[in-house]
Amino acid sequence: MAAELWLQFVLALDATIRMSTPLILCAMAGIFSERSGIIDISLEGKMLLSAFAAASLAALTGSAVIGLAGAIIISVLFSLLHGFACITHKGNQVVSGLAINILASGLTVTIGFAIFSQGGQTPFLSRDQRFLPLELPFTETIESLPVIGPSIGVIYSEVISGHNILVWLAFLAVIVTGYVLFRTTFGLRLRAVGEKPEAVDTAGISVSWMRYKAVILAGILCGMAGAYLSIAHGGGFVREMTAGKGYIALAAMIFGNWRPVPVLLACLMFGFLEAIAARLQGVDLPLIGQVSTDLILVLPYVLTVILLAGFVGRAVPPRAIGVPYVKER
Amino acid sequence: MEQKLPRWIDIGLLPVINILAAFIVAGVIIALIGENPFAALSVLVKGAFFYKGALGYTLFYATNFIFTGLAVAVAFHASLFNIGGEGQAMVGGLGLGLVALLLDPLLPPLLVVLIAIPAAVIFGAFWGVIPGWLQAKRGSHIVITTIMFNFIAASLMVWLLAGMLMAPGQMSPETRSFADGVALAQFHTLVSYVGLSVAKSPLNLSFIIALVACVGVWVLIWRTRLGYVIRATGHSERAVIYAGHSPAKIIIITMAISGGLAGLMALNEILGVQQRVILNFTSGYGFTGIAVALMGRNHPIGILLASLLFGALYQGGAELDFEFQTITREMVLMIQGLIILFSGALAYMFTPMVARVFASYISSSKGVD
To answer: Which of A85, A104, A294 sits opposite B155 (nearest CB)?
Structure first.
């Protein structure tokens, strides 16, 4: 009984990592953008567009790598559009993000329908058109060890091994984001344009160009998140397949106070909620009875509101966020 | 060099240029997927205005957009960006439904309707007040909280409609139908009483309520003390404090009005057509309200015109779906995104260009260089 429960828990952890990956990539994208002062609610739309681009290109060319490249390019293009509206034309950042999200919902289905005539979906991708799980060495050996195998060994074989390359890249992205933001001159300047752009401007650095660089980085990460959904985790594009994940990533970013490691933990927590919600559907728990999955899935939003309200901790956004920079003349 | 443009350019010409830009991009995309954009436009216009019953449908959709557009606009006047119209409309519909379901066995239908309408307003207002309160008292950014409240409302609706409110013996997440007569009369039945006959459409009395709401919002914002303070809050909170008002109170009141207006959208869909609460009856109209408010420059007349445009887009879009092999309803969503982009985020992209043309026109007509 205990062994079975342990295995269930380990499998839930495994699912947590799968569910968290797009959130992590997206949230890191959000950190880059928002740390530079550009609100990015278009994470959702960019992820949807890149999921579509990845699946379409993988289906048409047969190559997952081309799919990923296409996803990143599309996402960066829409990031640039967001930048063009918000940085160059000083448009409202929320409105621009919203426009991209709605545009993404419309464009993906419209173009998908025109190319594949499958009601907005892409064809189901075969194994060689996707990023497949990578089995780490010795999983079988470790799992078959006595005592250690079923207890700790399963963590190695189930949770750590068996993920595709994008999962690994997501965790790498956290390290890179942390390093770039807090250990490089570039990162210092990027954070500075989000806190006090006048100071950066006085130092002779272009605020606009810094912010453009930030949204491009956000685009790259968001593109990877989209590709993960359609050609790594899933086997094709389905309409509205992001299903609010971009907003959950946004919530995680706020929850983690725009700092890479706390944001990673928030993503893992929200991913874990998603993973157990799927597992608890219709299951009778001892003492509690059935738990409504709707109530579990709504928790990320509720928790974020509670945090934003300052009842536990405090969310402190970058100071100059949402404010277009107007150079003094 | 910066010259102030005359009003007719700012509120007349520029929005038209922005919409044209959106339509041109949409036309290019339609051409790219292998259809004739002009044929599509022609079907869109005929489908929205000229086919039998089309106009009724167009006005029916416009009714939704008037409510949600006004909701966004009122908040905008206080510099609050209420993205939560979708959730507020859902909860408004929930309030309306609860009242109807509880009271329809007890009271005559007309009385139920008269209680259900304020219930929609109050529930919608409640869902707007929480983010408003969080913004005013706790400094939580209203954009983020209203986004979160949309999701929370959606979950709440699934949980209730697939749970305790689900009609017995049925599989889809919706309530039982209200008693006969707990509805707002549809236009085609109304005119049949006076011996006229028009094509059947879901257009109903909510449209009249929407027009009244337009006037109400105009009076509120530009002709009352409260409206003045709301606008003042939008410009400068400090000035409002100096004038002896509490910005926090104004923010909360504004969000209540905004949420209440969004809640009214439920009248059109639920009392006008469904006569029961169904899942996703808001189908994105709350978000479209943002586009409507942006295009209509937060003025009731502008919102009315923008609502008509979007109503026509939705109705005409349905016809596009029928008549073209490769065009689906989502085309409308795409056009909507483009309109928000051009008339919202890039609203001032064409301003310098228009200003230059205007300046050269002025100088040439005056004969000076």
So the answer is: A294
Residues A188-237: tens digit of each pLDDT: 999 999 999 999 999 999 999 999 999 999 999 999 999 999 999 888 89
pTM score, two decimals?
0.90
C-alpha–C-alpha distance, residues B262 and B89, integer Å: 5
How close A112 gets to chain B, by Cα (Å)? 10
CATH fold label, A2-308 = ABC transporter involved in vitamin B12 uptake, BtuC (1.10.3470)
Contact A99 B134 (CB under 8 A): no
Given CB atoms, is B134 within the 8 Å cutoff of chain A? Answer: yes
Measure A150 CA to nearest chain B CA, in Å. Answer: 38
Q: Which residues of B touch A102 (CB under 8 A)?
A: 287, 291, 333, 336-337, 340
CA B43 to chain centre: 24
Nearest to A241 by CA among A48, A27, A46: A48
Which residue's entry shows tokens 């257009």?
B203
The string of pLDDT tens digits covering residues A62-106 is 889 999 999 999 999 999 999 999 999 988 898 899 999 999 999
Looking at chain A from residue 28 to 57, which residues have their Cβ under 8 Å from any Cβ of chain B?
Answer: 39, 41
Q: Are strands A289-290 and A284-285 parallel, antiparallel or unpaired?
A: antiparallel
Instruction: Spell out a b/e string for A77-116, using b for 16 or more CB atoms within 10 Å of the CB, else e.
Output: bbbbbbbbbbbebebbbbbbbbbbbbbbbbbbbbbbbbbb
